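Cross-check.
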Amino acid sequence: MTGIHQVLLSNFSAGEGGAPTEIELFVLAGGASGGGGTHGGGGGAGGLRMFTAASTLTLTADTTYSISVGGGGPLAENSQVGNDGTNSFFTSSGVHIVATGGGGGGCSGGTGTNQPVSTVARTGGCGGGGMADSNVNAGGINNGASGNAGGSLNGIPEGFNGGDGLDGTSQHTTCGGGGGAGANGGPAINNGTNKKGGAGGTGKTESITGQSLEIGGGGGGATDATGGSPQVGSAGGLGTHGGGRGATGLGNITTNSSGTHQQGTTDDPTAGTDNKGGGGGGASAACFSDGVRASPTLINKSGAGGSGLIGIAYLKKFRNIQSIGAGLTPGKSADTTLRTGYKVYTFTAGSGDIEF
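Predicted model, tokenized:
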């Protein structure tokens, strides 16, 4: 089985139509937003918890389980560090399974007079990507934040670290990608003609729902391309498994010999995908055309984080979950069409209690 593994639930009543004796389970937290302002690192993906049959979790029969699906972190703007995602959990009196929300991407608002100082990336289930700055420490490295805030469970890390940002010259400044549930975020690149924000860390592919969902990707780091001559902005880091794209921005517009304004391309950041726990892409400097931002609603704003997801599956011969709290979405009977021979529940939002 790939990605999500089995949780053995012992001591349930056995027999045809009774409560399940074992289930498969994954708990995915909400992803963080990328850093806002002129140079933003990618947001970390939501942490992911899973269990294997080799290291089982025993639960008690006739027990109520409280579950909650974490939301994604709202977008950040100006000189704000990215907003962390919210935890998801599956708990009872004897069980405490918590997936930690992703850590926000770092940001920089510049260091000139009356400008805010740089802000470091935040730790989380998966760490936020490092910011960058072109004014103070050209060529310096700004560390991405640590992931795996909740530690490892059954030898499986909750998530991975954000990539490092790289301070540039006045030409290029690149930021680190947010950590993913399966790998570290990519470091920023500023090497010759290859200048781009770090890619978001890869996530995992879960299999218990029967849909092979790709989840837990970090957000891409931003690229800020400025200078005294027209620049074609390098693409920001590419988020995978639901991670958002990092922004590419151009700060300066110049006039060529014929008096025509020249301008390179720009990419606005994108949000992490909801129900995939993706990190949001980092923000970049404003892109101007004759002094007007191409996308005025996204000036110095990052991509938001994507919400989390909880999935449960067990053999079809056992009865449906007997009670699902009204605060959970969806609050319905099992789907028996997604995976042959199994009942599948996927909770996409909310909080509430369930009873098997």
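The chain has a mean pLDDT of 79. The chain has one domain: 1-356. Passed to J.P. for a second look.
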